[in-house]
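During the reporting period the student researcher (J.K.) took over the structure-prediction task from the postdoctoral fellow and processed the backlog of single-chain submissions. One of the processed entries is reproduced below for the supervisory committee.
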Amino acid sequence: MIFHNQNDDISSEIAFLDKKLSEIGWPIPFVHTMPLIRQDEPFETMMGYERKRIFNTFASFVSKLPISYTVFFADKSFYQETSKIQIAYEHQIRNFLESHLEFFQSFDKIICYYDSGQAIVNRILQNTLGDIFEDRVEFRKAYQKDYKLLQVADYICTLEQTKTRWDENRTTKSEQRFFTSRHLFMKNYYRHIGKKKIR
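J.K. obtained the following structure tokens:
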């Protein structure tokens, strides 16, 4: 979950990002992080240094944003049923929201953006944010290609997953080629987003 106070205008940061991406030869104002690392579509014809330039430009953009975030994990191998995965996530999210209730209560309105890609995530959001904030929360359907902060969420999820894989000695070959080493990954990327993480 990415948190952004909409009183903090980020339009200039977005405009600068789009300008920089265009200057380095990526005219599409959309960055999908894992395909960029793996050299999947639409980055399949790009050289490593070209993909790295796009990644670094987006990383710099994220580091300057007035945002915070948290992540929730559930290892599917521990759960036999989807319903139990849902319960696990709802428990984590509810605990987080209740632990930071004073922060969330300071806002008159909470808007939750999600692309409705997974029904289970829709249910989880309704059952947690909806129950706790009731009519103060508004759910809006949004897509990554249209919302930079959804691309930021994708970027942060990718880095968090990569860190977990590195911690557990199971990084992919693509990650190893792209980041070179855990030390450089932590130094050049993760430490910048880690400062924004709500514990």
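The committee noted the following: The chain has two domains: 2-67+155-194, 72-141.
J.K. will present the remaining backlog at the next meeting.
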